[in-house]
From TrEMBL:
<dbReference type="GO" id="GO:0005829">
    <property type="term" value="C:cytosol"/>
</dbReference>
<protein>
    <submittedName>
        <fullName>Response regulator transcription factor</fullName>
    </submittedName>
</protein>
<feature type="DNA-binding region" description="OmpR/PhoB-type">
    <location>
        <begin position="135"/>
        <end position="234"/>
    </location>
</feature>
<dbReference type="Pfam" id="PF00486">
    <property type="entry name" value="Trans_reg_C"/>
</dbReference>
<feature type="domain" description="OmpR/PhoB-type">
    <location>
        <begin position="135"/>
        <end position="234"/>
    </location>
</feature>
<dbReference type="InterPro" id="IPR001789">
    <property type="entry name" value="Sig_transdc_resp-reg_receiver"/>
</dbReference>
<dbReference type="GO" id="GO:0000156">
    <property type="term" value="F:phosphorelay response regulator activity"/>
</dbReference>
<dbReference type="InterPro" id="IPR016032">
    <property type="entry name" value="Sig_transdc_resp-reg_C-effctor"/>
</dbReference>
<dbReference type="InterPro" id="IPR036388">
    <property type="entry name" value="WH-like_DNA-bd_sf"/>
</dbReference>
<dbReference type="GO" id="GO:0006355">
    <property type="term" value="P:regulation of DNA-templated transcription"/>
</dbReference>
<keyword id="KW-0902">Two-component regulatory system</keyword>
<keyword id="KW-0805">Transcription regulation</keyword>
<feature type="domain" description="Response regulatory">
    <location>
        <begin position="8"/>
        <end position="122"/>
    </location>
</feature>
<dbReference type="InterPro" id="IPR001867">
    <property type="entry name" value="OmpR/PhoB-type_DNA-bd"/>
</dbReference>
<keyword id="KW-0804">Transcription</keyword>
<feature type="modified residue" description="4-aspartylphosphate">
    <location>
        <position position="57"/>
    </location>
</feature>
<keyword id="KW-0597">Phosphoprotein</keyword>
């Protein structure tokens, strides 16, 4: 019999019907489910309970989901966050990704889709340090990244990267100097199928450049290759 700990999912949602459905569905799938009904409680639970992923609604009492996400990232917390909202406008998706969310699911959604998104995050985080050809550490410019310890520094100071940003750098570390298309990044880093129309990659690349580049407007390392994608240079 396996003794592996069940993965913990923190649902942050104030809709009683949706809470019940998520609790039942995720428990049936074998997850340990915790719940917070407002933003302040969610922050306290993330800090004390250390869930494996947070499914975070945007519209919440006391503190919005966007505020919760932004606060956690400002504290250096890299817990994977999937934003959840009935609002499907691009501005909401882009804003959620800009402040550090790892993924975004729009209501209504299927349980299968949510579980697939969570498992993709866990799978990437669980095996990224063992990936073929990926160095344990990467140094470029003033930045140093330790993929095994999930830590980064810039000019000797701690650098806060989201789990997704670590994954992006890890993929580029395995493909230094090679042009990588947005579609490839979506398939290999996000594990999306097909060629979805999305600004997800560009948004994450812009955020990452702000953190690692001396001048994000004239990047030295994450280079845009017109109409083709991106290239990483040491």
């Amino acid at each position: 019999m396996s003794t592996e700990r069940k993965k913990r999912v923190l649902i942050v949602e104030d809709d009683p019907a949706l809470i019940l459905g998520l609790k039942d569905g995720l428990a049936f799938e074998g997850f340990e489910v915790q719940h917070a009904a407002d933003g302040e409680t969610a922050l306290a639970m993330v800090r004390s309970e250390r869930p494996d992923v947070v499914v975070l609604d945007i519209m919440l009492p006391r503190k919005s989901g966007l505020d919760v996400c932004q606060t956690l990232r400002a504290e250096g917390d890299t817990v994977p966050i999937i934003m959840l909202s009935a609002r499907g406008t691009e501005i909401d998706r882009v804003l959620g990704l800009k402040i550090g969310a790892d993924d975004y699911v729009t209501k209504p959604f299927s349980m299968a889709e949510l579980v697939a998104r969570m498992e993709a995050i866990w799978r990437r985080n669980g095996f990224q340090s063992q990936a073929a050809n990926q160095p344990a550490r990467l140094q470029f410019g003033m930045v140093e990244v330790d993929f095994e310890k999930h830590a980064a520094w810039k000019a000797g100071q701690p650098l806060t990267l989201t789990p997704r940003e670590f994954l992006i750098l890890a993929y580029f570390a395995k493909n230094i100097g090679r042009v990588i298309s947005r579609t490839e990044l979506l398939q290999k880093v996000w594990e999306y199928e097909g060629e979805p129309v999305t600004r997800t990659v560009d948004t994450h690349m812009a955020n990452l450049r702000k953190k690692i580049e001396p001048n994000p407007e004239k990047p030295n390392h994450l280079i845009t290759v017109h109409r083709l994608g991106y290239k990483f240079k040491i």
